[in-house]
Amino acid sequence: MAGCQPQAEPAQTGKKIKIGIDPVTRIEGHLKAEVEVAGGKVVDAHITGGMYRGFEQILYGRDPRDATQITQRICGVCPTAHATASALALDDAFGVELTDNGRIARNLILGANFLQSHILHFYHLAALDYCNGPDTAPFIPRYANNDMRLPKELNDVAVGQYLEALEIRKICHEMVALLGGKMPHVQGIVVGGSTEIPTREALNAYAERFKKVRQFILEKYVPIVYLLAGPYGDLLKTGVGHKNLVSWGVFPLDNKGNTLLKPGVYTDGKDYAVDPAMIKEYVKYSWFEDSTTGLNPTEGKTLPNPNKPGAYSFIKAPRYNGKPHEGGPLARMWATNPELSATGQKELGVTRLRDIGDACFSILGRHVARAEETALVAAAMEEWLTQAQPGKETFVPAPIPDSAQGLGMTEAPRGALLHYIDIKDQKIANYQITSATIWNANPRDDMGQRGPIEEALIGVPVPDVNSPVNVGRLIRSFDP
């Protein structure tokens, strides 16, 4: 991992040793981690998002319909999630109700991207924390002491799947393009539904590709995640964090608010319904003007201050009811609590994810939740394919309102995603985005509370300060 610069003292001395990892590699985006290690464990952590993006300012004064295209450029991995959140905000502002075919088309576009993103995350970003590839790029450079525990035969299987997963991801992109126009940055998700009326030929081509993807998920991806729990069983007890979770819900099943992956909030051991008014963003330790702290996204402002004393990140610190909350597959699977896959039930000896309790809140627990979610979404996509009607309308036209507000809440593969739009004189007067990773990779808030990744790093074992492999494992388990 590039940029690891520990002090030269051994961890066993009991002295605090600061390790800087900059950049954290094998993630999407720009992230820096600074941890303090004492007694072979992390005792403090700071996570820095080092890039200012400013899409809120780019959107100011533009045609509201531009938002679904422009916001996709926030992320090259999950552009469809931003298109979806933006379209939902516009649907709300324009007062549009989708056709069933439009809803299903959007689900199939976003669903294919979910599968691609989860496969990408495990195989091409996280897997190299658990298996050794050949001594050539992209498998090197790597830590000298990288704590690899897989027997050779299983390691070889994992590396083979790494290569196969590249082809599977390409197929997922083709599925997105069949209904969304292209990938990345789809053209098909717009206010009012989807621009592409599916033909029987397009749906058949999608289904043919989907069959290969689902087979890979059920026969290779899900099983190998559980195989890691043998040699890496201690990672089911590492990386707990705050144990608070948020999910806005995703993949609508109707126009009444029912979703495949359910909305829900889990705070201090109790479940709550989602209330958007409970969300506030704090910036005491972020490079934004202090005047913007403590605001709900509907009141939010984006005023950067890169020279602000004491700040250390371009990520705001969102809080739900004043407390840090984790988003992502674990949060969604916790809120939904569906039956596990056949492999999951066999390996874990339980029926539902919540049945394994605190093991969910761990490095491997997050990987298990992501793999199980992938299988769940794939099963739903098979059903949506049977519901899609060739030649039936997917788009409802609507005029731009003179003045309106809209809120779009959905899920990106890596967490809870919110877009808010304020329209005045048929132009964007304010646009606010609370991206998925912001919930996990944020800095301390005005109350001094660590962000979820920062908190989950506390107690992570670092027996060798020159090879802090578990720090990388923990951070990547969140898929930032």
Question: Care to describe what's here?
Answer:
It comes from Desulfotignum phosphitoxidans DSM 13687. Its EC number is 1.12.99.6. GO terms for molecular function: ferredoxin hydrogenase activity; hydrogenase (acceptor) activity; nickel cation binding. By secondary structure, the protein is α+β, with helices and mostly antiparallel strands. Helix content is 34%, strand content 16%. It has eleven helices and 15 strands. The chain has helices at residues 55-59, 67-70, 79-94, 100-126, 152-180, 200-228, 329-336, 342-348, 363-387, 452-457, 469-477, and strands spanning 17-21, 31-38, 41-49, 189-190, 193-194, 245-247, 250-252, 259-261, 264-267, 270-272, 279-282, 317-320, 403-412, 415-424, 427-434. It has a three-stranded antiparallel β-sheet. A hairpin with a 2-residue loop joins strand 4 (189-190) and strand 5. Helix 4 runs antiparallel to helix 5, helix 5 packs antiparallel against helix 6 (200-228) and helix 7 (329-336) packs across helix 9. It is globular and about 65 Å long. The model is unreliable at 6-12 (pLDDT under 50).
CATH class: Mainly Alpha
CATH topology, by name, is Cytochrome-c3 Hydrogenase, chain B
Overall number of structural domains: 1
Which runs of at least 5 residues are low in confidence (pLDDT < 50)? 6-12
The CATH architecture term is Orthogonal Bundle
Q: What Rg is obtained from the alpha carbons, in whole angstroms?
A: 22 Å
Order of neighbouring strands in the sheet with most strands: 1-2-3
Count the E strands: 15
Order of helices and strands: EEEHHHHHEEHEEEEEEEHHHEEEHH
| Overall spatial form | globular
Give the integer mean of the pLDDT values.
Answer: 96
Find the CATH superfamily: Cytochrome-c3 Hydrogenase, chain B
Helix content: 25-40%
- Taking the alpha carbons of the first and last residues, their distance comes to 16 Å
Largest sheet: 3 strands, antiparallel
EC number: 1.12.99.6
Subunit structure: Heterodimer of a large and a small subunit.
Binding site for Mg(2+): 56, 433
Pfam families: NiFeSe_Hases
